[in-house]
Amino acid sequence: DVQHVKSDGTEERGQAMVEFALIAPLFFLLIFGVIQFGIIFGGQIALGNAAREVTRYASTVAPNQPIATIRTQAAGVLQRGIPAYNGSSVVNASYCYYPNPTTPVTYSWKVIVTISYAHSLFVPIAGAVVDRFDGVADNRFTTHVRDSMRVETPPMKTYPSGTACGAHP
C-alpha cells in the first residue's frame, strides 16, 4: 500500500488503481489486437502463396481440366500453409483466352484462380472487434486472393471456343 502525502498534508490513496482501471481495457485491446492481426496477416500471406501455387498447377494442365482436381490441389496447399486451417476455403478457377500480339493472330489460354478463406478469430477481446470488419458476425474474418497465369499450351491458330479474357469478371 503506497501512500502519497500532498504538500497540504492530505493523503492520496488508490489513484494509480483508478488510472490503471481506466487504461487497462484499451491496453489489452491493443495488445490482443496486434496478436490477432498477426495471426490473420500470417494466414493471408499463406493464402497468397497457396493461390500462386495452385495457379501454377492449373497452368500446367489443359483448360478443360475439371475444377475438382484444382480444388483438391488447393486443399492440400492451404492445409500445409495456413496455421489452424479450418477447411472454410472456397476455390474457383476459370480459363479464358486472349489474342497474342503476333501476325497472324494466335490465341493463348489464361487461368484465373480465386480463393476465399474465413480465418478463425482466436483472441476473444480483439476477435469481437475484428469479427464485423468483413460484414458478418461469425467469429471469422474472410479474405480473398486472386491470381492469374498463362496456361502452358502452344498458341492456338484458330479462334477458340470459350470465354474471352476481356469478358471475364
Characterization of this structure:
By secondary structure, the chain is of the alpha+beta class. Helix content is 40%, strand content 23%. It has three helices and five strands, in the order ββααββαβ. It has a three-stranded antiparallel β-sheet with strand order 3-4-5, with helices on one face. It has a two-stranded antiparallel ribbon with strand order 1-2. The termini are far apart. The relative contact order is 0.18. The mean pLDDT is 85.
Q: Can you tag this structure with a few keywords?
A:
169 residues, alpha+beta, 23% strand, two-stranded antiparallel sheet, 3 helices, 3-stranded antiparallel sheet
Task: Give me a quick take on this structure.
By secondary structure, this protein is of the alpha+beta class.
Helix percent reads 25-40%
Taking all residues together, what is the mean pLDDT?
85
Uncertain residue ranges: none
Our count of helices gives: 3
Largest beta-sheet details:
3 strands, antiparallel
**Helix- and strand-based class?**
alpha+beta
Subunit arrangement of the protein = single chain
Order of strands, widest sheet:
3-4-5
Radius of gyration: 26 Å
Approximate strand percentage: 15-25%
Shape: rod-shaped
Could you tell me how far the N terminus lies from the C terminus, measured between alpha carbons in angstroms? 67 Å
The run of helices and strands is EEHHEEHE
According to DSSP, the number of beta strands is: 5
Write the layout of secondary structure elements.
Layout: E1 4-5, E2 11-12, H1 15-59, H2 67-81, E3 90-99, E4 107-120, H3 124-130, E5 140-150
Antiparallel strand pairs: 1-2, 3-4, 4-5
Helix pairs in contact: 1-2, 1-3
